[in-house]
Amino acid sequence: MIGVAATQAGFLAGLQPLLSNESSIYLPDSQQYVDATTRWDASTHPRLSAVVKVASEADVQRTVSCIEYANTHNIPFLGIGGGHGGSTALNHIQNGIGIWLRGLEGVNITADGKEAIVQAGHTTGEVAQQLWNKGKIAVTGGCDCVGFISPILGGGHGWLQGRYGLLADNLVSARLILANGTAMTVDSQTPDLFWALRGAGHNFGIVTSVHYRVHDRVAGQDGFGRATFTFRQDKVEGIYTIANQWLAAENRPVELAHWTNIVINATDKKPVISFFIYWQGDAVPAQYTDPLKALDPVSYIEEWLDLANLNAANGASEDGPACAKGGSHRTFPVNLVKYDTENMKRVVDIFSKLPAAFASSSVMLEGLGTNRVREIAEESTAFPHRSSNILASPLLSYAANDSSLDAVALDFGKQFRAAFLNNTEQPLRAYVNYANGDESNGATYGYDSWRLQRLQALKRLYDPTSKFSFYEPIEI
């Protein structure tokens, strides 16, 4: 340990004079270090000897430029944004250096009004609100506390994707710091790396800012009508038979999305299904609500939500329950084309058997719009799941720092996966931004051999020493 401490001290002593006056280095005995390293999922705990809070792109570049020293002494790096990623691959970091990006600030609209220049320190909620205040909207994710840029690198699902595509589809360019400390602009003029950045981008460096497509707020398109139904578990077959009809419709409306959240009722300890219909416009049309009303829900509510406050209404604001840090949260994502009603019954049955320690867990099923997502060619980005309609995500939540519960969570996560895929003759396809950490490269980056070969070749070219390999790493 003395050798490790001396190595870290030597690295930091060499780095400090290179940084701007506005930057800081935090050690484990400081509150700032705790603030930077406390993660949404306590079961992922990269071991960091220090955190560098950068104040400029040059600070990031200088920190990574110490790579020669870091390579000699095997010091790993981790870029820190919202601290929301939950892959167990992060646990492989030992005695690392965190690069905290929160000091990189700015959301500015370009002169033509078509793009925003977003610095890497912002969360999704901050960007969405600033764009809203400037009369703009964009494809943004469903959780305000997540870093804005990181989801883009894994493809990125968002509320407006049916109309405008994935988050990655709206990336115009990115400033990227490579493993050798080089800063470069990645865009259509660097097609191979631009392809990789949109789906597997966290493998290639640290993004310090992006140019991102934005759109004018238009009345009738800057919010969603939402219909919320609550059902008991005996309605599973009826609910998902109806949802499958929407998914199979030849001309599925671009305005339509749906969402499920299965939770445990606090009173009788039985599963309850909250089913949401979203319609980009004033209200959800009756042709979608009436069939579900006929299933005799326990409750039914209709409301309208503007895009800037949509996540807050779902409990996913910066200070909402979905963003609370300190507990353990394991996700086990499964991409699906349609609902198998018998499999959904199995999922609910497994959920009903969770131990009491997992009472705050849920099963999310996101049926966001896919119109524009599917119009974009499969081979145009590294994101491999454009043919999927549903993102199923069992979320197992429990008290932190209990390895026995970690093992139980993994066991139930595998049961949920098996139930979703039962009799589908499909392999696991997992959304990388929700990855648990035990998925194969094929599951997260696609089973097509050309995809993996292209990613591996680019990884060897741009990160040959695998410095950026602590979140669902490409195997080379």
From TrEMBL:
Pfam family, any one: FAD_binding_4
This protein's name: FAD-binding domain-containing protein
SUPFAM superfamilies xrefs: FAD-binding/transporter-associated domain-like (SSF56176)
Cofactor(s), names only, from the UniProt record: FAD
Domain FAD-binding PCMH-type: 44-217
PROSITE patterns per UniProt: FAD_PCMH (PS51387)
UniProt-listed Gene3D superfamilies: 3.30.465.10, 3.40.462.20, Uridine Diphospho-n-acetylenolpyruvylglucosamine Reductase, domain 2
Organism superkingdom: Eukaryota
